[in-house]
Amino acid sequence: MHQLRFIRLVRGEGRGELLHELPPAAYTQKTTTDPYEFREKLARIRKQGYIIEDGEAIEGISGIAAPIYNFTGSVVAAVGVGFISSSVDATGRETLLAEVLKTARAISREMGYGGAGYHSAAAG
Q1: How far apart are CA 62 and CA 84, in angstroms?
Q2: In total, how many domains does the chain have?
């Protein structure tokens, strides 16, 4: 997913318009393209505070990302990691998720964010 699109969608900004302008495109067989399913997925991402994708953009590539918040509590960026899906087991994914969340929190704190917009890796 393009980072700026992800940021706007996580923020909840103009979701209807954005989905109409740029409907989800199928990059692989795993890509979510149904608008209703896509909205449900976005709601889950906002609730858990991160995204884990497995082969949705590129076959065989997974990714984990979390939002960066500024001092106003607005999502202004995201931090993430991509990896070859078969090279990381479930324990490794949990470790990567924990590191992505830790990094996102640290950057957000540096940006003046003091809220509780993150959840533990175990909660997801």
Answers
A1: 6
A2: 1
User: Coil, helix or strand for 9?
Assistant: helix
Give phi and psi for 22, each to the nearest 5.
-130, 75
In a domain, 87, yes or no: yes
Q: Which domain, by its residues, includes 72?
A: 3-113
Q: In whole angstroms, give the CA distance from residue 11 to residue 5.
A: 10
In a domain, residue 50? The reply is yes
73-115 confidence digits (pLDDT tens): 888 889 999 999 999 999 999 999 999 999 999 999 999 998 7
Q: Is residue 76 part of a domain?
A: yes
Residue 92 CB-density burial (10 A; 0-12 exposed, 13-18 middle, 19+ buried):
exposed
